[in-house]
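Moderator note: this is an archived Q&A kept for reference. The question asked for a predicted structure of one protein chain; the sequence and the answer are reproduced below.
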Amino acid sequence: MVAEKGRPCTNPIQQGELDPQGWIEVAASLNGCGADAMLLSCAGVQIAPVLPALERAFGGPVVTGNQALVWHALRTLNIKARPSAYGALLAGAFDHDAALRAAG
């Protein structure tokens, strides 16, 4: 299932000025839509302070462009330490080793 929702703005400066709390409302409006995850593809929005709240409001993982970049860098450099409070992706929930441990 794919659903789409956004916060209108006309330029990257406005994207950076959007209140992070507003993304929680967007996430809550998508809760129950049937999507497996929520993607915020803009690198200019302020999301890090509200990632855990976004995941709770959405009811699943939230992935941002910047978060995915950091995740990829950690994997590429084989760094096992994971920061907390930055969402399921950076917490390691989708790392290959974590998936193997969960499977049994």
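Archived answer notes: Residues 65-76 form the longest helix (12 residues).
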